[in-house]
Design brief:
759 residues, alpha+beta, MetI-like fold, five-stranded antiparallel sheet, 32 strands, elongated
């Protein structure tokens, strides 16, 4: 009796310890699960915190108003600031350049252009904002060019020896000398003027008061011995515009195209690349009947026209090359209209943004590429006469009809981003039609960033599609055979071997795919495609032949070892296909199938293409799908298969109606996990494709995926820029995609589990 009680006591002690261990592991598992959820949530919110600012609207600080008398007299024709947006610059129609403090409006300096006795400025034109060059047309048929300049100096702070005081001294400079340049040799007043200046060449277009259109070019020639600079003039008279009064002249930054606005709503385009022989190209209507063009300017880069009308409409136009290689000025996009008639449009220095003002005192800050109205603001009910934007786009200036200069700081760091620019086709400058495009950088300052994530998302799905096309049939069918038909001894070798493949670094697979497989497939394209086509048929034929063989032969091969016979068949078929590939290329494809596809059939072909990625990534994904699917099939209770066989079902009937249905949740999970692996793969697609962000379903073209794009460009993206945050947006899109797919997959898996768990 005592012995029994002792045993009970000991068992009770073991039970207590086991229960304690169960509770401990229960809490550990709960903690681990919650930790995973918290970690994923933290990753999501961190990505979101980096991405959200690019979708926030631009902000404008409280507007400051300075009386015009405190700055300078005369009608303003140009407003701008120095780079730090600390000093404002106002140029008047009287030739007075006034500099004032943007914090309090106090005058800092004022200079008046020096002109001969009796000569007055009668017109004004601003060139490329980056060159800071403007021109005044004079009453005697000449013009004077000047540039604003800011000399920066530093002096020790008397109160703090470790600190320097920065001083900015504003002034003006004359790039071609203080002597006015002759535009009209007949001496008529310059009624309208357009100028562009670079160090080596200056071009001016002018309308004289007697109605003639002149094109004048000035080439600066430097004497190598004396260092003196002389100016050589070339001038011609342009063909007259079709009709109507000329209201404005616009000359592009590269000094190749001149646009003459006339007749209230028309623009005539002149090709002035050859300064000695310009030609009239076309005349187009910039506004519909009933509207007139009231303001126009050229965006940064000098390629696009922004046109404002009397009805408050704003539109972008630029030249588009047609199939016959001719350029046509084309309406590209319209923007949200303003309430009143557009009175002024001021472009940004470096970006494709512009500030518009109307006759009701409203202003609107727009960005062309993203088609965004960044903000609008009412300054009162007095018309805006002239406006300007600081070089860094962080300050705006306006002058209203009430003789007051208004200025405000602007926070506008990410104007390029909108749903339209990210996901829809965008018509970029110099493109023949709207396109999806990702091009985050370029070598020139007039570059228009292209941030469409659509081709990256397309490339991600394309990579997953071709990888799954290779992996799913091989992995699932292989798992079915290994778990249900294969002998235990052979399974004990095959399954660990395939699972070891999963440990192979994908960078090695990408390296081999890019440097060995891609050139090999390129040199043996016909043989590769022939092998892919013949292998499935060879399996069927081999199975048929196997069943026709005598039993004495087939019984010599152990049950479950039949798959080993496919190894020589596969090698033989691949060898035959590769052997006959080159003769087939020679007979049908002129000896070079890639070249034939590109030039005869018009199919794009790249050496590193989707076929190579599908093979390499399929090889990487197969172990994951195979292992999970095989475990699911092998775990089907034996009593289910035994019962089915006992009731007279064949092995294939049992497999199809019992095993696969019962294991379907696990098989589905395996496929979804494999797809997640394919979607998130980076190194293989990075090394085995051309990394071109194109949208083409062809198996012979490359692509760029979201993950590869992040891997390629994150190292060169400046922290906090639009490019940097959009790379995080790519990661967020990838995160959201996998989350949604996995959630839906889990719901489907649970439904399959509930449906087939009672078979």
């Amino acid at each position: 009796m005592e012995k029994i009680e002792s045993n009970i006591s000991r068992v009770g002690g073991y039970t207590g310890k086991r229960m304690a261990k169960d509770k401990l592991f229960k809490h550990l598992m709960t903690f681990g699960g919650l930790s995973v959820i918290i970690a994923i949530s933290v990753i999501f919110f961190y990505l979101a915190s980096v991405v959200v600012p690019i979708f926030m609207p631009a902000k404008m600080d409280a507007m400051k108003t300075f009386p015009l008398a405190a700055v300078a007299q005369g009608n303003s024709v140009h407003l701008t600031t120095e780079e730090q947006a600390e000093i404002g610059v106002r140029m008047s129609d009287r030739g007075v350049v006034a500099f004032f403090n943007l914090r309090d409006g106090k005058p800092m300096a004022e200079e008046k252009i020096s002109l001969p006795q009796g000569v007055e400025p009668v017109s004004f034109a601003a060139g490329d904002l980056n060159q800071k060059t403007v021109g005044y047309g004079l009453s005697d048929g000449r013009m004077l060019l000047l540039q604003q300049k800011f000399d920066v100096s530093f002096a020790p702070d008397p109160n703090n020896p470790d600190r320097d005081i920065r001083t900015i001294k504003p002034g003006i400079d004359y790039p071609l000398g203080t002597e006015p340049l002759v535009v009209d040799t007949e001496g008529h007043a310059i009624k309208r003027l357009a100028i562009q200046h670079v160090e080596s060449e200056t071009t001016a277009a002018a309308l004289t008061d007697d109605g003639r259109l002149l094109l004048v070019s000035y080439a600066s020639i430097s004497n190598m011995l004396t260092g003196e600079v002389s100016t050589e003039r070339t001038g011609v008279e342009l063909p007259p515009v079709p009709g109507g009064e000329v209201s404005q002249l616009l000359l592009d930054v590269k000094q190749r195209d001149l646009y003459v606005l006339h007749g209230g709503r028309f623009a005539t385009h002149y090709d002035v690349m050859n300064k000695a022989s310009p030609r009239l190209v076309q005349t187009v209507a910039l506004a519909p009947k009933g509207e007139t063009v009231t303001a126009a300017t050229m965006l940064s880069g000098g390629f696009s026209l922004i046109v404002g009308t009397s009805q408050g409409n704003l539109a972008q136009w630029f030249q588009v090359r047609d199939k016959t290689n001719n350029n046509h000025l084309t309406h590209i996009r319209s923007f949200k209209p303003m309430q009143g008639s557009i009175t002024t449009i001021a472009p940004e220095f470096f970006r494709k943004g512009f500030l518009a003002g109307d006759d009701k005192g409203d202003i609107g800050l727009y960005y062309a590429t993203s088609k965004r109205l960044l903000f609008d603001h009412s300054t009162g009910n007095k018309p805006i006469k002239v406006a300007g934007i600081g070089p860094r786009g962080n300050a705006i200036l306006m002058e209203s009809a009430g003789n007051a200069v208004m200025t405000a700081k602007v926070e506008n760091d990410y104007p390029e981003v909108s749903f339209y620019s990210l996901w829809q086709k965008v018509w970029y400058e110099s493109y023949p039609e709207p396109e999806y495009s990702w091009q985050s950088s370029a070598a020139t300052s007039d570059f228009e960033p292209k941030f469409s994530v659509t081709p990256l998302t397309f490339g991600t799905l394309k990579a997953a599609f071709y990888a799954m096309l290779v992996a799913v049939p091989l992995a699932v069918l292989g798992a079915v055979f290994a778990a249900y038909f294969m002998s235990p001894k052979m399974r004990g070798v095959v399954k660990p071997s395939i699972e070891i493949m999963e440990a192979l670094p994908t960078v090695i697979l990408g390296f081999l795919a890019g440097l060995w497989l891609a050139p090999y497939v390129d040199n043996n394209l016909a043989g590769t495609l022939l092998a892919i086509f013949l292998l499935p048929f060879s399996f069927v034929i081999t199975a048929f032949v196997w069943h026709t063989l005598p039993e004495r032969f087939t019984q010599g091969i152990g049950t479950g070892w039949e798959a080993a016979l496919l190894i020589p068949v596969i090698l033989l078929v691949i060898g035959i296909a590769l052997h006959f590939g080159h003769p087939i290329e020679a007979a049908l494809f002129d000896g070079d199938m890639p070249h034939y596809l590109s030039n005869t059939w018009g199919w794009s072909y790249e050496q590193r293409n989707s076929l190579v990625v599908g093979i390499a990534m399929g090889f990487a994904v197969i172990p994951t799908i195979f292992s999970i699917a095989e475990d699911a099939i092998f775990s089907v209770p034996k009593h289910l298969t035994s019962g089915s066989l006992a009731l007279g079902a064949t092995s294939w009937q049992t497999l199809w109606n019992v095993v696969l249905l019962t294991a379907s949740p696990g098989i589905f999970s395996a496929v979804m996990i494999g797809m997640g692996r394919a979607v998130g793969e980076t190194m293989i697609v990075l090394m085995a494709t051309g990394n071109t962000a194109v949208m083409d379903l062809s198996i012979f073209t490359g692509f760029r995926t979201l993950s590869a794009n992040v891997g390629v460009e994150m190292g060169e993206a400046a922290v906090g820029t639009t490019h940097y945050r959009l790379l995080f947006f790519s990661a967020l899109v990838l995160f959201a995609f996998t989350f949604v797919v996995n959630t839906l997959a889990e719901l489907v898996r649970q439904r399959l589990r509930d449906k087939y768990s009672h078979i």
